[in-house]
Amino acid sequence: MKVQITVHPRFHLKPLVVILLALMGIAFVIAMVRYANGIGAVSNLSNSYPWAFWISFDLFTGVAISSGAFLMAAVVYIFELKEFRPLVRPSVLTGFLGYMMVVVALLVDLGHPERIWYMMIHWNHTSVLLEIGICVMTYLAVLAIEFAPVVFEGLKWQKFAHFIHRFIMPFVILGVVLSTLHQSSLGSLLLIQPAKLYPLWWTPILPILFFISAITIGLSMIIFESTLSARYFQRGLEIHLLEKLAKAIPIVLAIYLVIKFSQLTFAGDIKYLFTSGLMSVLFWAEILIGAVTPIVLFSIKRIRQSANGLLFGAVILLLGMIMNRFNVSWFAVTHPDPITFMPIFMGQVTYFPSLPEVAVSIGIFSAGILAFGLAVKYLPVFEEEEHHDTK
Amino acid sequence: MTEIKHKTFLFDATRCIDCRACMVACSVENKIPMNKTRIWVAGVGLKGEYPNLERASMVYHCMHCNEPDCLSACPVGAYSKRLDGPVIYDPKKCIGCRYCMNACPFGVPHFDWDKGLIEGAFIDKCTMCTQRIDIGLEPACVATCPTEALMFGEREELLKYAHDRLTGQPVRYINHVYGETENGGSSYLILSHVPFKELGLPDLPSQPVKEVSEAVMGLTIPFALGWGAVLTAAAAGVHMYNQKKEADAQKLEPSEPQAEETK
Fold it and tell me: The pTM is what?
């Protein structure tokens, strides 16, 4: 199936681009205020909520939605299911931009962004955060290498593109190992909070649950971005490929549910399922939206075979699973009751993200969307790699 | 080499009169602005009905855990545990990620939310006044306490002393020394007449909260190597299988490959 894209290198601002640029500008101004006057000047973060919206959205969600890159690389290069080739480039691009967004967001969130490279020289080997930092930095480089051929092809430097393509395998394997490590380690990040994270979520197997759910998020993200870009860039849609991905999702989700509920049973936490008030509501919302509904939707052939059905199912799954990330990293975490023992500088007990806080994340997200659009416009992201397949 | 004695605080909630002199002493000694503090006194407030009224207050600062979770969590190793007790934070290494604040089950480390890049936003927490104990003085909060609610000394001795108090006045106290085993033991021991939970102290098991996290971290390298090997083997296996299948297919139609080569 060939998809012809006519490239117009002419630069003309569409309304969407103007909006994205405006959102980026707002985020930039807020970031400058934050650098001048401190994190407290723009956000509602406090000593009771040292991590909240930024970490839940930018780090936990950002990394999870970028997992399509390693999945597609593994499927095409390691398992040689070559038919999925058209999905590799867009998902590697999504992954690369996703991780770039994570890093940019961390540069706003860290107290000392200029020291982010300290992670490379000062190693505390017991820290989960160190592992994530190292993995994310290395994986960003791997993704850049995996995406480089596309850039070189866009520049008509076929020789370089060919050269990288010949040595891609070690990088693919390294990428899959790094992804497995840090996708699961995001769950390990919360293992140090057994006293703070609600027992419906805290379990020693959090890393396994995180990895499995990251797979479903990655698959949904590929469906999401393919159907949307097919619409926006008026190109063909590989619906037969997406259908196969959608077919895999209920299986992975079923494994996820089985592990999740057997863990709750074995840990004796089943008693919290209906008796924890808000926590029970959050838990069931996450399970029903993120796992049960997508299993039902993607099991129906008619939904899998329609572009709208695929998009709808993917969006539902993404919403539920992103809610899971918010639950474990924010909603279900209770820091020691501040009223009792920190009356002076823990005055702010409740937390709701401030408008500038959300605006920073939206601005960074807008930059990602804009970069994706520009890459698709000027680089052969969606083109079939005919020249590589010829022997 | 002489054995290094493990220094410890002992706080007795029944003796605290909520005067907050320790907070002032700490601010003066460590030059902490008054809107921030490394030590804080929290009151439970009045309880019971007249005439049986009761109130309690708790002096709260870093527990200086024997197995510090902040130290385990910090990616860049900005924390260290001195052999004589104090858990020390090094602002020169800190990247401001605030993972220590998430890790600490007591909510001790706090952050300069109001400092920009130029002033530098750091974590702050009690240092056990190392500048004082190194020259044989007690920490400022202990030295200033008028009722000896706060005491300072060697851990073994203070533990024994605390247990003596419990056995001497069993009616006065809840029969437990908080910090003896909690979270792997801490260098801040607490005696109280009200349940420790009411003082804002979390109910913690004797294994430190970092235990599971560190066990999982220990699996990282072996897992990475094993997983890498499995993937390499899988890739090689699939490749060989596909090539063999292709070769078999070509055997059946021997004219095909030649035609392709001449292209």
Answer: 0.89
